[in-house]
Amino acid sequence: MIDLRSDTVTKPTEAMRQAMASAEVGDDVYQEDPSVRALEERAAELTGKKAALFVTSGTQGNQVAVATHCVPGQEIILEADAHLFLYEGGAASAFAGVQTYAIKGTNGMFSAEQVRRAIRPEDDHDPETGLICLENTHNRAGGAVISPEQMKDVYDVAKAYNVPVHLDGARLFHAAVALGQPLSSFTQYTDTVSTVPFERAWGASRLHSCR
To answer: What is the pTM of this model?
Structure first.
């Protein structure tokens, strides 16, 4: 039986275990681990970003992005059923000191006009909008694919207001395969992205691709 409850219930094959056991290793603090460096460089290449950072979970990748883009007291805009909103233990408020503005979208995606209305005006009584977060594919929307065109519409609004965009790309490879497009066709409309590795030998770990 194939267990489709979650990607976290998968187990490595014997070939994966052998690859991990025989992998070249080194001190990652000094950037001397060749396997990690090769993985980060490949991730940056695929996503079209300047650099990538190997982290231990999807939640960690998303929260690194929130903390990178925001300062305490700001607000992040996300879809009401987003993983970052529902399933990350309130980490955005606990670690980055930001609050969330959840917008109910359609099939996991809000419109550019919804985002435009949600971005806070310059007012001392309002928190400043610090980040807009997308999710692709969208888990709670049944794995709905968010097209690059939809992402561009939101990205254009974000850039008009000088607000960065982060993509929770936990299943971004699925979206790329579904539409027959490279990862960069999606990630060109984001400032940062977190995504699962392209090789399951790294288990449930994630790659957080930075600016």
So the answer is: 0.89
